[in-house]
Design goal:
elongated, three-stranded antiparallel beta sheet, mainly alpha
Length: 126
């Protein structure tokens, strides 16, 4: 056991994990890293709006109609549709039409992971 009360092997494993994370970026050449950074920034920009983030959060539980989203968000149809249009443009959601109703669902698993992480960090246990 280490002096700080932790298992010495646990500390070694944590140090190894930190070293692995710090070397990840070094494994990519600058051009490839820049492209991936731009992709990540675009994803984060798309989610960096309360309304869009709330829509994405609701869609993690499954497909929802525009009307359902309006009710869940307590927002007007025009505002919800505007945010859904941005999410569609970014490729984060997909939709299907059933008669007059339009249903939305998540289409990017990376975005779903980010939304779940944000939920865990800010909403779980709240």
């Amino acid at each position: 056991m280490a002096p700080d009360g932790r298992d010495q092997y646990q500390g070694t494993a944590e140090a190894d994990a930190t070293a692995d994370r710090s070397e990840r970026c070094a494994r990519l050449d600058a051009e490839e890293l820049m492209g991936r950074a731009q992709d990540a920034a675009n994803l984060l920009k798309a989610l960096a709006h309360e309304g869009r983030l709330m829509i994405m959060c609701h869609l993690t539980s499954g497909e929802k109609s525009v009307t359902e989203l309006e009710n869940l968000l307590e927002s007007r149809q025009a505002a919800v549709s505007q945010q859904l249009a941005r999410l569609r443009l970014e490729g984060l959601v997909s939709y299907r039409r059933d008669g007059k109703a339009i249903y939305y669902s998540l289409s990017d698993p990376r975005a779903a992971r980010v939304v779940e992480l944000v939920y865990d960090m800010f909403c779980s246990g709240a």
